[in-house]
Design brief:
Largest sheet: 5 strands, antiparallel
Structural class: alpha+beta
Distance between the termini: 93 Å
Oligomer: single chain
Number of strands: 13
Strand order of the largest sheet: 4-5-6-7-8
Helix content: 40-55%
Order of helices and strands: HHHHEHHEEEEHHEEEEHEEEHHHEHHHHH
């Protein structure tokens, strides 16, 4: 594919944006009622006021708190802060004889990768990334940093991004809206072409914000990603690069056939969220009527409703208040109490929490929790995620690790480039959410060993302790350098036999004679 010009890029971005606009109603409702602080659909980005209130129509915070809790649980289960949540392992393409040495080297690379990541803002960025994923589509940009921050993780609001899929359902092309100060452009893009118009804008108004667009388009012929930075207002290309790895990580929580963008749990729960919000609004209005009341005043020449003020209630002028003349002032009967609304609201809150996986075992803020309960929580969350768990691994964890290793290789943090393709090197999640499934396999092995031992010598002969030990160590992600090699095991076995013979001592003459007599 030939290099795209500015016109072609802008046309492709416009088509991608038009397809995304079909999702505006769905995503806008989700952000307004569940993530109002991250809502850019309210016109703030297009010309609103920074710091404006975003919860004017929100009357219930159930969805907001449940969404935050959903993101926190996913992060704690798959990407726990300041912990190692994956492991680089050898694939089937590595010969079995070289596997121990290769795995030891990959363990060292894994340790190095997480040492670098602890110096970055990954934990903060992942929290915001998962909030957007709860809506359906999340985007993160991974770029090289400096000495203080080796890698930069930038969660991109879903509102600013439009995407295109490739032939196999992968997101190959990404278009992003950027707004930055004119003076920051040369700092952000050192290789940018400073055109006369841009130089004039920087000199005249360095603090004025300029709208840009960057695009990553995959070239199938060369197998590289083409990175462009466009100034749409002037139709000028400021930056052009080619790279082997895309800086954008795009994840979809769940995807329907024929659709590009994802549908998250908030899309499922939005009907209940809006119904609950409207019910609470009506209850509050009814409560205000109960507190202040609405009154009627008889216009009988004695009471002038125009001059009577009863705060905070209201007065409605009428001809009479019952009877021949009736009282001059009478309270207006209300339509009824909303006592039954409490039942409706409780049911809606339970449904919302259930969809957002906030209906777990006993509250996890209790003081005493056993290891079994914690493991059961992780196993329950993994089962509730279902297919979304696999998509989180395939579209988030694996591309994220591949991109991090690529950036580290370019910066010289690792000696050899690693090809994460599942054949030579594969990414295995070791976070609590993934570990819960592996521990079940370990429990099955332990139970089998207990049964085999109970069968006596014949059952024990069916067990290969070295192989079982290696299997359990692999499932529990024990580093290779903590295990003995086959050579070390053989040496230890010889030492144990020699020690046993030394303790037994050489046979004496009496023992020899007794032995001969026994043989005769």
């Amino acid at each position: 594919m030939a290099r795209l010009n500015v016109r072609d890029l802008m046309e492709r971005e416009a088509k991608a944006q038009s397809r995304k606009d079909q999702w505006r109603t769905i995503y806008e409702d989700c952000y307004e009622f569940a993530l109002p602080q991250r809502n850019l659909y309210d016109g703030n980005y297009e010309g609103g006021t920074a710091g404006q209130r975003k919860m004017g129509r929100v009357f219930d915070s159930t969805a907001i708190s449940a969404t935050q809790r959903f993101a926190n649980r996913i992060q704690a289960g798959l990407f726990p802060p300041q912990k190692q949540w994956c492991r680089l392992e050898t694939g089937s393409g590595i010969p079995e004889a070289q596997t121990p040495q290769a795995q030891a080297a990959l363990d060292a690379y894994t340790t190095r990768m997480f040492e670098v990541m602890r110096q970055t803002n990954f934990d903060l960025a992942m929290g915001e990334f998962l909030l957007d994923l709860c809506v359906g589509t999340a985007v993160m940009m991974v770029t090289p940093g400096d000495e203080a921050t080796p890698i930069r993780f930038t969660p991109i609001p879903q509102y600013l991004v439009s995407i295109e899929e490739g032939s196999f359902g992968n997101v190959d092309n990404v278009y992003r809206k950027i707004r930055m100060k004119a003076e920051a452009i040369p700092q952000e893009y050192p290789d940018a072409e400073i055109t006369p118009e841009l130089a004039d804008a920087i000199s005249r108004s360095p603090s004025k914000e300029i709208d840009l667009m960057d695009a990553v388009v995959y070239d199938y012929e060369t197998g590289v990603y083409c990175y462009h930075v466009i100034w749409p207002a002037k139709r000028q290309e400021l930056v052009y690069r080619t790279m082997k790895s895309s800086p954008f990580i795009v994840a979809r929580y769940m995807k329907v056939a024929g659709e590009i963008y994802g549908r998250g749990p908030l899309v499922t729960a939005i009907a209940d969220i809006k119904t609950l919000n409207k019910t609470v609004e009506l209850v509050l209005k009814n409560a205000s009527l109960s507190i202040s009341g609405v009154y009627t005043a008889a216009d009988d020449g004695v009471l002038n409703p125009q001059n009577v003020k009863i705060q905070p209630g209201a007065i409605i002028g009428v001809a009479r208040n019952g009877g021949a003349q009736g009282p001059s002032l009478s309270p207006l009967p209300r339509a009824g109490d909303f006592n039954t609304s409490q039942i409706v609201m409780n049911d809606l809150r339970m449904n919302i929490k259930k969809v957002l996986m906030d209906d777990t075992l006993p509250p996890d803020n209790m003081s005493a929790r056993s290891a079994t309960e914690i493991a059961e929580r992780s196993r329950e969350l993994a089962s509730n995620l279902g297919s979304a768990f696999g998509r989180l691994i395939d579209e988030t964890m694996v591309p994220l690790v591949s991109r991090i290793l690529y950036v580290m290789d370019q910066a010289g943090y690792i000696d050899l480039p690693l090809k994460v393709n599942g054949v030579e090197v594969k990414v295995t999640p070791v976070a609590p959410l993934a570990q819960a499934q592996k521990l079940q396999e370990v429990n099955d092995i332990v139970q089998f060993m207990q049964i085999a031992n109970s069968l006596g010598p014949q059952g024990q002969m069916a067990l290969s302790i070295p192989r079982i030990t290696a299997f359990i160590a692999d499932k529990m992600n024990i580093k290779q350098d903590l295990l003995t090699t086959p050579e070390e095991q053989e040496m230890m076995m010889q030492q144990m036999q020699a020690q046993a013979m030394a303790e037994q001592g050489p046979p004496t003459a009496d023992d020899g004679g007794a032995t001969m007599e026994a043989m005769q």
